[in-house]
Structures are given as C-alpha cells and as structure tokens.
Amino acid sequence: MRSVIENAKNVAVKVGxxxxxxxxxxxxxxxxxxxxxxxxxxxxxxRKVTIVSSGARSAGFGRVGRWADKAxxxxxxxxxxxxxxxxxxxxxxxxxxxxxxxxxxLLTHEDFDDRLRYLNIRNTLLTLxxxxxxxxxxxxxxxxxxxxKIGDNDYxxxxxxxxxxxxxxxxxxxIDGVHKADPTTNRQAELLQRIENIDDFVTPGxxxxxxxxxxxxxxxxxAARKVAMMNIPTLILNGTRKDVIIxxxxxxxxxxxxxxxxxxxFQSRKRWLAVGKRVKGKLVxxxxxxxxxxxxxxxxxxxxxxxxxxxxxxxDLVSIVSMNQGLIxxxxxxxxxxxxxxxxxxxxxxxxxxxxxxxxxEVIHRDNMVILG
Length: 373
Hints:
alpha/beta; 5-stranded mixed β-sheet; Archaeosine Trna-guanine Transglycosylase, Chain: A, domain 4; 13 strands; 2 domains; 18% strand; 14 helices; globular; Carbamate kinase
C-alpha cells in the first residue's frame, strides 16, 4: 500500500455515501473534514487529486427531512438537487481552510459515450487541477434516466480515473476492504489485503449496501477490475477511520485491500473504447478470426463473424467474443446489425453483391478496436 501511494502522481479518490453521511442523512462533518485534510496532504506531497463524491441524496434528506421513502424518481432527483448543494458547501468550506478552491462536475453516461464530450471532461479536469482547483465529481442524478444513467459512483470513479489518466484509484467505504465473507454478518471474515489477479477474482457474495448507497463491495471490485485493465491499481480503505490514507501511505496501518493492475494500459482513445463508451451489441467470431485479432493485429472481417447479437448502427461499440463467449475486445462497427446478419461469414468480395453496396472491407477496423481478453 505504501509504495503505490508513494509512486502515484494522479490520484482519484472516491468517497461513498456511507462514509460522508449518517443514517439520518446529516453530513458527518468530522469525517468530511478529515477526508479533505488527507486530500490536501496528498496535494502538498506533490500529487494531483480528483474526488468522486457520493452522498447527494442522503444529504438532501438530511436537509429537507422528507421524501426518503418515495419510490418515484422525481423525489430521488429532488433530494439529489438539494443535497448536492449541501455537499459542495461543505467541500468548499473545508478546502477553503487550506486556501484551495473547488470545482463541480456533474456527469451522465452520455458524456462518456460521445468522444468529444469525453475529451472535454478530461480537458476540464486537467485545467482545474493545473489551476490548483480540486474537482468534485458526481453523477448528474437530477437529470439521469435509465438510458444515460451511469449507475453508481464506483463505476463513475473508474470512468473518471481512466479518462483523466490517474495512476491510483482510492475507494473510501465504511468497511476495511474486501473480505472472504460479508463482514457485516460475519465479524470473523478475513480481510484480503492484496488481490493480484482481479480478472479471475469472484466477489464472495454481493455484500450489503448502505442505507443510502447504490452499490456494495461487488461494485467496488468491478470498478477495480475496469481500471486494472488500464494498469491502474485500486486501494479500498475504510474512510470513516481517521487519516486512513495518510496511515496507509506511511505504512502505519495495513488495513485495507490493494488490488493490483492486470493490464498494460492504453492510449487515450483505446481507453475510451475499452471502458468509456457503452456497448450496444456483440459479435461472436470463429477461431481463425480470434487468432488474427489476438496475435496478428488484424482488422475484423465479415468472414470471421459467426453470430450477431443486439441492435446497433454504424459507429456503435460492440463486444467481440470467442465461440465460447470469452471476451476478446471491443470495437466500432462499420455496418449496422441487420447488415451484419446478412454478411456474417461472407467473403469481402461478396459484401457488395449481398447488400447492394459496400461501406468498408472491414467489419471493425483495427484502429477502431481494443483487444482486452
């Protein structure tokens, strides 16, 4: 733990609702103040830091004292609207004590789907940080619908870490890390201090969500799995413990889980294809195509496509999987799903005859593809 913090230059810190707010929704001022103090310590040590902060809905309830039991989305969004103001006031006041300003980014999945907006996120973060301003990021819950919703801030923190180019993701939750069993029901559950092969790791149960949280330990492991592909380690710590990041950095407290990276990393556009943009379909390819993609660095041709799943249009992102459903990679398709259904298995020379026109020789060009599996 000590070495990954020492070596990190760009740190994304995700703070959970269960850390920031009490059961009544009131912001835990002591905890938030201590987290800000630790972030300032990281910055004073020469690191750049972004914060992905949950807690808006719970803080909204803490402020207005109603609507917590309402199932309608409009009430949840209203609470988030109120609570986001409360959170930013707290962050602003606490960072001001160290002479620092904060900036707010509220995002949806549409912002990551679109390449230009994705780059704008990155550029805004870089500009804020270079200007000595601490970015505070949350999902734009007041407008999010199922179509554009990110889902939870663990996933958002992974997207931000990848888009920004972080070299460490710190997830602060209300337990000490990943355990072999659910520690809320089994106090003897062993803490896993180090996970080296996150790709093959199976989370032991989903773990309990907090009253206000949207995820559990499983979503944190999933977030770690996503950033691991980009050569980014994840450190899961108990954010309710005072100075937990500082202690881990100084080697004074070993409680926590370090999840090591599993990939070699990619350039910005490949990162976007791997994690940022949403998948709209799936292409099952034969063994010859799999070998050409994995070892030959080739584009995907129609002759190697065995099956087409989902509905998508040209330019959409699809998964590329093997005959046994193993993930090979992702890429932007040149043809829509109906066209690909017709030309699957066909030779390049037959595409124009089958469709009446030929958009491209490739189903997915190598430049628009990222190999993951």
